Amino acid sequence: MVTIGIDIGSISAKAAAIAKDKLLGSKVILTGYNARQAGMAVFEGLLKELAIDRDAVGRIVATGYGRNSVDFADQAVTEITCHAAGAHFQDPEVRAVIDIGGQDSKAIALGPNGRVTDFAMNDKCAAGTGRFLEVMARALEVDLDAFGEMSLQADEPAKISSLCTVFAESEVISLIAKGARRTNIIAGIHASIGARVVAMANRLKLQAPVMMTGGVAHNIGVVKALEDKLGLPVQVSAHAQVNGAIGAARLAAGG
Amino acid sequence: MEAMQPFHDIAADPKAYARAWKERTGGKVIGTLCSYAPEELILAAGALGFRIVGGSGAISKADVHLQAYSCSLVRGALEDALDNQLDFLDGAVFPHTCDSIQRLSDIWRMNAKTGFHLDVVLPVKLNTASARDYMTAVMAKARSELGGMLGQTIADDDIRQAIDTYNRIRAKMETLYTLRRDCPGVIAGGDVHAITRAAMVMDRHDFLKGLSKVVDGVSAAAKAFSGPDPKRIFLSGGVCNLPDIYGPIEASGGAVVGDDLCTGSRQMLGAIDDQDDLIEAIGRRYMERAVCPAKHAGIRTRGEELVRRARAAKAQGVIFLYLKFCDPHAFDYPYLKDMLTAEGIPTLLVELEEQTASDGQFQTRCEAFMEML
Question: Which fold has domain B2-157?
Fold first, then answer.
C-alpha cells in the first residue's frame, strides 16, 4: 500500500509517496493563495506522474502551515514531527535537523527512534529564513540560485551586523554603494543567517549528525555558514525541500 | 457553570467593573503594577486593588516614552494610562521589581494622571536576615504612606481582617489548584484564567463568595468526572493576560495542571500566618512565596522550585510563557530549562506579546510539543 505525505508550506506545496519503506517519488508546486487547492493539485499531480491509482493509496498525512486545509488527509501532523520523521527515514543516525524554509526556520533534536526530543522555531521574523535571502537577492540583482556558488568565491566576507531583514537590506545597499564585491556581500549574508539560526539551535544542545532540510539547504553557502557556526558537519538531505512530505508519508505508514 | 459568568465578565472588561464599583460604593481604586504590591494593605484601607496589565490595544502614546524593546506589559500599561483609560484610579502603587517597572514608575509619575503615586522599594534579596528586617520596615512605611495618601490611618484590626480575607481566598485557590492537578480537565484553563484575572480586580469579599461557589461546583464535578487522558502541562512564566493560550493547549490534547505565573499561583497562593506582628507576617509571605526572577533568593532557588512544582503536579511537560523582551525571565530561562531537562521533563518556550492574540504559530508549537510528549 502506498502512503502519501502532503506538506503545505507558505511558498510551496510538496507531496511524497512511500511504499514498502521506499520513496517512490515527490512533487513540488507553488502554494498560491488557496492551500486546499494546492494540496489537491500536488497530490493528483504526484499520482499522475507516478502512475498510481487513487484506490492504491492508503493513509494520507498532511503537514505544514496549511495542514488543516487538506481535508482529504486522514491526519494532520505538525511539520516539526514530520521533518524529524523524514530525516530519520533518510538516515536513522541523524540526531538533529535544521530546517530553513520560506518563512520560518527550526532546529529539532531527535532521539534514536526518530522522535522529537526538543525543538525551537523562528516564525515571527523573516531574518534567518528563505525570505531573507530573496530580499537580498533582489537588492543585489543576483539570481538566488547563484548565491551558494558565488559566496564560495568570497575573499573577505562582509559583516552584516543587523538581525532585522529590513535593516540588513539597507546595510547591504550601503555595502553596494561602497563598492563591496557581491561575492563578499553574499558570504556576509550567509554568515548572518548562520549566526541567527545557530543561536536558536544552540539552545537545544544539538548532537551530530546534523541534517539540513528545507529549500534553503540547496544553498551551499548557508550550509557552510551553519557548519562554521555550529562547529559540526552538516549533511544536506538529498530531498531537502520535500523532507517534511516524506516524513508525513512515513508517519502515514505508521513509521 | 453559571457561577463562572461574573468572573468571565470582569476578565473581559476589568476597567468597566472598577468604574461601576467606584460609582456604586464611592470607594477608592488603587492601581498596582505587579504581584509584589501589598494588596492586603489596600484592602485594609477599604480601597479596591486593581492590577494593571495593559493589553487593551495598539500602542501609540506609550512609545513616545518607551522603546519598542520594552515588554508589552509596561508599554500596554502606560498606553492605558496616557489614553485616559485608567481615569478611575485614585492612586498607583509601584513595587520595586524589574528594571522596566522601576523606570515605568518614574515615567508614570511624570506623565500619567492616575492620582497619587507610591513606590514600595522592596528588597532585592529575599533570603537574608537583614532583608527580612528591611522588608518589615518597607511594609510599615507603605502602611503609613498609603494611609496618608488616602487620608486615614490603617488600623490593626482592619489589617487583621484583610489578612483573614486574603488567607481565605488563597486557601480556596489552593483547593482549586489541587482539583485541577488531580483531575485535569475538570475546569477549563480559560475558566481558571478568568478567576485569577478577576481576583486582581474584583471586590475581594465578593470574589471570595463567588470563588467559594465555583470551588464547590468543581469539587462536586470532580467526584464524577471522567474525561480523556490529557497531556499534563505546567505553565511557567510571568504575566499572562491572554486567555486565548488555553484553547490551543487544550485543542492539542493538553491540560494545564499547575503554574508559577505572576498572574497565577505566585499571586494567588501562600498563607499569611503567625500574626503576632501583622506587618512582619505580610512581608514574610512576600519573602517566601514563589520568587519573581527580578528578585533573588539563592542562585538556583527558582530552578529548584520549578522542578519541585512541576514534579508535584506530575507534569509531563513545561511550557515557558514569557512576555517578549521580559529580560529577568529570559536571563533565568537557560538554567531553568537545563534543570528540567536533567529531570527528564521536556520544555517548550513561547514568547508572547499582550497585544498579539495567539495564532497559528502558537497552535503549531503546542501541537508539536504534544506530539513530542
Answer: Rossmann fold (3.40.50)
